[in-house]
């Protein structure tokens, strides 16, 4: 009986000793259990704060969910993956034209300056032997002048005489008076030249005998063919009034260019 009582006392003392060791005080007066628990709580709180602070960035960079470990464990997040945007080939859209009506060809080699205008008659000899065959007639408006272009087939350029008419305009061959629109008429005589191939008898120039002005507010009013007889080709240029003009020639193809000064 005495032995059992002694054994119980030893067991109680051992239990008290163990209890004192687990909950005993440290040198700073704080229990080990409380300090450990506080440290654990602080660690978990810090982990949660970091996870919440990075949530928006992670959601923007990673499509998968974020996994958070238990308190005291290491939190592992997948590295953000940056996916480059696909390359897009771009090309400029083709520009469309302003309209379907095209102006007369610019005759790029022609003189577009405002030099050389005068009111006196102009003339020049033919550039080569043979009869120049008229192929096209063009009228156009430029800054400072209106232009008439006589274009010829082949390599032959005719001579010319250009001057203001001093009286009525007559048809070459018949002598009939030709009415020309405008207040003044600039007579253009091209020689040797024709709108018909004299060897074959076929027309080379297939345009109209009366060519309207390029614009209603220009100085030109009308262009009229007044004769094609014995290699003498005549045209009348109707204008609003007599103005200074100039004449020059171009090659490739052969052309005779008449410019009338505009205000």
TL;DR?
By secondary structure, the chain is α+β, with helices and mostly antiparallel strands.
What does this structure look like?
It contains three helices and 13 strands, in the order αααβββββββββββββ. The radius of gyration is 53 Å and the shape is globular. Helix content is 19%, strand content 29%. It folds into two domains: 6-25 and 32-77; 122-261, Immunoglobulin-like, CATH 2.60.40.3500. The N and C termini lie far apart (145 Å). With 263 residues, the chain is α+β, with helices and mostly antiparallel strands. The strands form three sheets. The protein has a six-stranded antiparallel beta sheet, with no helix packed on it. Strands 8-2-3-13-12 form a five-stranded mixed beta sheet, with no helix packed on it.
Question: What structural category arises from helix and sheet content?
Answer: alpha+beta
Shape: globular
The neighbouring-strand order within the major sheet is 1-4-7-11-10-9
Give the termini distance in whole angstroms.
145 Å
Strand content: 25-35%
Number of strands: 13
> What is the second-level CATH architecture of the largest domain?
Sandwich
Would you tell me which CATH topology of the largest domain applies? Immunoglobulin-like
How many domains is the backbone divided into? 2
The gyration radius over C-alpha positions equals 53 Å
SSE ordering:
HHHEEEEEEEEEEEEE
Estimate the helix proportion, in percent: 10-25%
Provide mean pLDDT, rounded.
73
CATH class of the largest domain: Mainly Beta
Characterize the largest beta sheet: strand count, sense, and whether it forms a barrel.
6 strands, antiparallel
Poorly predicted regions are 17-104
């Amino acid at each position: 009986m005495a032995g059992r009582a002694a054994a119980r006392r030893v067991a109680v003392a051992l239990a008290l000793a163990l209890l004192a060791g687990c909950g005993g005080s440290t040198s700073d007066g704080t229990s080990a259990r409380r300090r450990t628990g506080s440290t654990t709580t602080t660690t978990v709180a810090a982990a949660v704060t970091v996870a919440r602070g990075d949530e928006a960035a992670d959601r923007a960079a990673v499509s998968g969910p974020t996994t958070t470990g238990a308190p005291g464990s290491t939190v592992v997040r997948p590295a953000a993956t940056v996916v480059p945007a696909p390359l897009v080939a771009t090309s400029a859209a083709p520009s469309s034209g302003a309209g379907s009506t095209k102006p007369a060809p610019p005759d790029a080699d022609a003189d577009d300056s405002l030099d050389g205008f005068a009111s006196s008659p102009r003339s020049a000899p033919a550039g080569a032997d043979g009869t120049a065959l008229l192929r096209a007639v063009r009228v156009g408006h430029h800054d400072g002048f209106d232009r008439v272009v006589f274009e010829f087939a082949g390599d032959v350029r005719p001579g010319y005489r250009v001057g203001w008419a001093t009286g009525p305009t007559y048809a070459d061959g018949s002598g009939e008076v030709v009415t020309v629109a405008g207040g003044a008429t600039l007579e253009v005589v091209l020689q040797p030249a024709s709108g018909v191939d004299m060897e074959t008898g076929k027309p080379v120039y297939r345009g109209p005998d009366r060519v309207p002005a390029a614009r209603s507010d220009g100085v030109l009013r009308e262009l009229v063919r007044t004769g094609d007889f014995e290699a003498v080709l005549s045209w009348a240029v109707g204008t609003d009034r007599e103005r200074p003009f100039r004449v020059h020639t171009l090659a490739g193809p052969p052309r005779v260019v008449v410019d009338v000064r505009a205000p």
